[in-house]
Amino acid sequence: MTRVRINALLAVSLCGVALAGPVSAHHSIQAQFDINKTFSITGTVTKMEFINPHSYLTLNVKDADGKVTKWAFEMTGLAGLRRAGLSRADRGGLKAGDELTVTALAARDGSNSGLAQELKMADGRVFKLLAEPNGN
Amino acid sequence: MRVLACSRIMAAAAALCLLAATVVAQQGPPARRTNNAPPKPSGATPRTADGHPDLTGVWNGLGDNLNGVPNQIANNGVIIESESSARDLHNGQPVAVFSRNTNRGQNNEEGERAASLLRRSGSNRPIYKPEYWEMVKYNDHNANEEDPSNNCMPAGVPRGAIPSYISQHPNYVMFIYPGQGGLIATQTMYRMIPTDGRQHTPLQELDGTYTGESIGRWEGDTFVVDSWGFNANTWFDQIGGYFHSENMHVIERFRREGNTLTWTATVEDPDVLLEPWTTTPRVQLLNPQPNAMLPESQPCSERDLAHIVTKEHH
């Protein structure tokens, strides 16, 4: 077992603290995303939607040939963005037109989607969309 | 386009926590807890001018009622006593658990499975007629698609459990259940429950709805809500595949003691159940902030099911 692997085990087992129980999401993380495969992709924000069951960030991504495709990233909601320092009060929020690089878990079905883990803004600032270890 | 593949298991694991935590954060200040034992009441029980306990308030002191604490596990009657101990409330027997609340070795998939098993282990279950056993099993095994509240439909009654907001008036009581995401996908639901002494409409004259025809009355200090006239589109819980018929009759009991509200529901559904089923009591705390407001709940739009490669809720 690698060190990376062990770290993962530690992190997930912390989830149950505040909720005393279900670490399940609306769906299992692994039901949709490959926890062993992350990728980074750069694009322009077209939409930030704060909706249930999961918020979505939509990007337009231009490939080497200039063709633009749409990518959709499941991500944390308003409270999570605030914790990450990405609220409107912090920096104007996430809005259409922002250039950024998303690092995400890959979709297991191979679609143009992922579970966002980190946002790197055009000015170099990085926002990690991770929970605090205590699950709050 | 530049795609980099690398291992980020830690991030994935933490993201699971994040999804869960978001729900609570939207609902108000969550209490830090390491078990799901019912909270002890404190403070006086306010009363209205007509002498009844006043249930008015924002009841989300423990997070949301569908998935917070008390959570779904409580419906099955399993109490989590510590990180390594759980017990069935009805038969007193210990329930085998994986370590859950601390950073012991347990990978993501095992963690999800452990929670899933625990939520299925309680002995307080609705007992179905034998001809429906396969249907219940099918529902449970295919809950990602079959569970209506995994796809933005209302949770219904009794799954809605304790409303996050109650407003008590002389002739009616208003219940509001905000839509939830993160752990579930369900839309906002409200109930306007008359307490003016009216009687039920005959069942066969009612078109089935998600919350049915609900009529309230006081039995001493207990607020009793009697409901029928449902559709058959809701489940009792996220786990188990427990469905019901449109002839379901539900009697809920709410009792306020200080800053706590205790709820149970008894379900009578002779079309599909062998006997009435009573949920394990849930206890919710009043929001500790005296000026607490119920925040807007986000609209629900399910976009993941098309990308999900498994069938069973975890």
What this model shows, in words?
The complex is a heterodimer of chains A (136) and B (314). Chain A has 136 residues and is of the alpha+beta class. Chain A has a single domain (3-128), classed as Nucleic acid-binding proteins (OB fold (Dihydrolipoamide Acetyltransferase, E2P), Beta Barrel). Chain A has helices spanning 3-12, 16-19, 29-32, 78-83, 88-91, and strands at residues 33-49, 55-62, 68-75, 99-107, 113-121, 126-128. A five-stranded mixed beta barrel of chain A has the order 1-2-3-5-4. In chain A, strand 4 (99-107) and strand 5 form a beta hairpin. Chain B has one domain. Residues 1-31, 68-72 and 101-107 of chain B have low confidence and may be disordered. In chain B, a hairpin with a 2-residue loop joins strand 10 and strand 11. The radius of gyration of chain B is 20 Å and the shape is globular. By secondary structure, chain B is an alpha+beta fold. In chain B, strands 8, 9, 10, 11, 12 and 13 form a six-stranded antiparallel beta sheet that branches. Chains A and B meet through helix 1, helix 2, helix 3, strand 1 and strand 2 of A and helix 1 and helix 3 of B.
Task: Tell how many strands the DSSP assignment of chain B holds.
Answer: 13
What is the straight-line distance between the termini of chain A?
28 Å
What number is the mean pLDDT of chain B? 81
Percentage of residues in helical conformation of chain A: 10-25%
Give me the strand/helix succession of chain A.
HHHEEEHHEEE
Q: Given the helix and strand composition of chain B, which structural class is it?
A: alpha+beta
Order of neighbouring strands in the sheet with most strands of chain A: 1-2-3-5-4
Using the coordinates above, name the CATH class of chain A: Mainly Beta
CATH architecture of chain A: Beta Barrel
For the residues shown, what is the average pLDDT of chain A? 75
